[in-house]
Amino acid sequence: MRDASDVIRVLGVLVCGLVLAALAPDAWLVRASLIFIYALAVLGQNLLMGYAGQLSFGQAGFLATGAYVFAHLRSMGAPFLLALALASSVAALAGVLVGLPSLRLRGAYLAVATLGFGMAVYHLLAGSDLLSGGRTGLAVPPLALPSGMSRTVGLYGIALVLLVLATLGVRNIVSSYVGRAVVAVRDADLAAASLGVDLARAKLTAFAVSSFLTGASGALLAQFLGHLEPQGFTMTESVTLVVAVVVGGLASIPGSLLGAVFVVLVPTLGSGTSWFVPVTYGLGLLLVLSFQPEGLAGLLRGLRNVLRDGSSR
Amino acid sequence: MSALSDYVAAGLASGSLYALVALGLVLLHRTTGVLHFGYGEVGALGTFVAFRAMQSGWPLLVAAGIGTSASVAVAVGFYLLVLHPAIRRGARPATLFILTLGLAQVLQGVIVRCFGAEPERFPLPLADAPALRAGPIVLHPITLAILATLLFSCLGLFLLLERSRLGLALRATALNLEAAEALGLPTRALLALAWGLSAVLAVPSGILLAATLLLDPFFMFEPMLKGFAAAILGGLGSLPGAVVGGLLLGLTEGVVGATLGLPFRNSLGFVVIVAVLLLRPQGLLGQPGKERA
Fold it and tell me: What span, in angstroms and rounded, lies between the C-alpha atoms of A73 and A69?
């Protein structure tokens, strides 16, 4: 938090969140929790893809790492916060390892390498009963909450607070030396290196923070679902996160949040037809990259400018 | 021992399919510089159209022709309407890659919408033919058909790319778009042709795959990823590399599946991708020194 207006904004968001929790029906809160949880992973993917320019098609692997480490720790009796912190850290470690190829690969090649990681994690889970709990899946013990608080409200509150913290954290990172170094590496790596930026360190930091957030998202998702199966962590999840970042807006924090709203709400439309989601995602990617490279965040900014002074600039 | 030779035969069959997929990916990559994530879906679309055409009574070859035309139309249309404008705007290779992901998603939805998600059996006449025995090795006719298609495609591509003026123009366009334009080459038509050609390669692999697996909207997905792995293993710039990579991946998968079990078999391709990219990014037969951008 940098100044008083930040404090006011954060308090405003939390108060709005509380009011919503008190007034809105449970179904809304469930949906909002899912948006908050996804937003963590989208922020992570955006840090990597938008800010660092490192294309990852294997985010489902980090999501799964976070979710399964969390679930196993919880079933061994670890408290929620400890399990969350450990799960995110293990995912971050995996991120650094997966990030190593990024020192030598670019663009689509890195995407294919990370895709390999994501698929390998999925097949490892699908093939190992010990890790995935076998045919019945892996159950996650329910959250211990203060009496009188429903699980829906409890999880909603936790997800909201964590998302606010993550948003502030990512904003601080991208406007810090590290963040500027990461963006400089994206835009002109040789120039950045000649100015003394440690390329390897900048890229690996981006991978570590990104997979930390994705792991946290996976852990919360595990708690939210209460039950894990490897089928929840396929290539589809990785694609969904790419779609969320591109449609929401590359290298934009509001864009990440809008992207999460997009990928959580689109599947609820289309009245259960299985073709609607891929077509919408695909068209979203094509239209955004062809006509509106800044995504929904860019549209929003344009709208705000029009409302403010009647011009679209 | 006969069990192992069975696995080798199975590995050869899947390996030649991977090689066929990898061939199309490498062709596109060599000529357009684009990694095509929607390659499998383009092939799947053509396969479904061919399937429907066969159901309404057309013979196999005509149906395959109809399916191929559909795939070519989609691929060329995608290049002309989406990719070409993006390249004109100076899009990075990564952006083009994500655009092909967009195409993949749209096609996936279209296939589910038009052909349903129920798995169906592709009625390839060869599928019911008896297996051939040569000593201890049992080969299914489909495997032979796959190998023949692979051989034929390799030969055709080699003649086209390395021995014809058209191939020279395609390679020149791939090497340096602006220089090719300055020389008066019709680069837009050439690149559209490359996209069409890749679709022509995609449909036979789709039909042969559908005959060995079941035809459902996602049947091309994993083989396509394995084809990616094969292409990267062999070196993305090299057509012989695609074939070697595909066969090697298929055979290793067969042997690993026999000795270590299925989970290892299924993740092998992806481990191979990561290992090759880390240790020898240019692949087995690729030329070193080129940046993987």
Answer: 6
Measured in degrees and rounded to the nearest 5, phi and psi for residue A311 equal -120, 160
- Residue in A104, A105, A282 closest to B106 by CB: A282
Distance to chain B for A250, nearest Cα, Å: 11
CB contact at 8 A, A99 and B88: no
Residues in chain A: 313
Q: Do B292 and A106 touch (CB under 8 A)?
A: yes
Q: From the CA atom positions of chain B, what is the Rg in Å?
A: 19
Phi-psi region of A134 (alpha: psi -120 to 50; beta: other; left: phi over 0): left
Q: Which of B176, B54, B45 is nearest to B105 (CA)?
A: B45
What DSSP character marks residue B116?
-
Write out the DSSP string of B181-222: HHTT--HHHHHHHHHHHHHHHHHHHHHHHHHHS-B-TTTTHH
Tell whether B225 is within 8 A of chain A (Cβ): yes
Pick from A114-123, B250-259, B284-293: least confident: B284-293
Subunit contact B267:A242, Cβ cutoff 8 A: no
pTM score: 0.89
- For A297, the token pair is 């965040």
| Distance between A254 CA and the closest CA of chain B, angstroms | 21
Give how far A216 is from chain B: nearest CA, Å.
25
Which residues of B fall within a CB distance of 8 Å from A242? 98, 101
Question: CA–CA separation, B161 vs A116, rounded Å?
Answer: 30
Backbone angles phi, psi at B75, to 5 degrees: -65, -45
Residues for chain B: how many in total?
293
Which single residue is written with the structure tokens 């020194």? B289
Residues near A178 by beta carbon (within 8 Å), at least 6 away in sequence: A202, A205
Q: How far apart are CA B280 and CA B59, in angstroms?
A: 46
As a whole number of angstroms, the distance between CA B231 and CA B223 comes to 12
Written as six digits, the tokens of B142 are: 């489909």
Task: Give the amino acid at A39.
Answer: A
One-letter amino acid of A160 = L
Give the burial string for B112-135 (b: 16+ CB within 10 Å, else e).
Answer: bbebeeeeeebebeeeeeeeeeee
User: How high is the pLDDT of residue B1?
Assistant: 45
pLDDT digits (tens, 9 = 90+) for A259-309: 999 999 988 887 777 888 999 999 999 999 888 888 888 888 888 888 887
Domains of chain B from N-terminus onward: 2-279 (1.10.3470)
Where along chain A do its domains lie?
4-233
Question: Strand pairing partners for A227?
Answer: A139
